[in-house]
Design a protein that fits this description.
Nucleoside Triphosphate Pyrophosphohydrolase, eight-stranded mixed sheet, about 15% helix, about 40% strand, globular
Amino acid sequence: MIRPWPLLASEPVFDAGLLRVVRDRARSPRTGNERDFHVIGMVDWLMVVALTEDNKLVMIRQYRHGSRQNSLEVPGGLHDGDPVAETAEQGAARELAEETGYGGGTWTFLGQLRPQPALFSNRAWIYLARGVQATGAPEPDAGEDIEVVLLDIGEVPACVAGGEINNAMTVAALALAHFAGQFQCPPLGLGYQCPPLGLGYQEKPK
């Protein structure tokens, strides 16, 4: 059985506010050797797979400075992790309203994913919102340029395969909804089908 590596020391390396880098010293329980790991700390992420009453996906297209490209994504944002001030579901609903102007509907927690466990310490909390409606105008942050896109579910596989949807966490969120049996994407003819997993197999939200 693979055992956790005991943490021997930890020191901050860099703090940019949004993210922090620490250097951890840990020991392998298998070999006894020590080595350094750099860990990037961020607050958790919130993501919403939102479906309108006529079963359209509410997506956003926004400019991402890291890739220097526009990116087609599910709505989402950051969560401060304080369940008293704002639960993860409340934060997800807030992000959906701010970025798209959509709200309401029936909400289901799909699960939590680790964006990159080798480097990042945070998690992404994924929600499904069914039957959302336009309730107002979007109110994006000053650092966001956003276009709301309504996408047919049947277009998702081709958008992923063709590279129009290339945000890895968006692909993962859509796949989680698909595997949980919340909507079914048509096959691309690659020769395999993943059966629905059903809900209840993921860690519950904090």
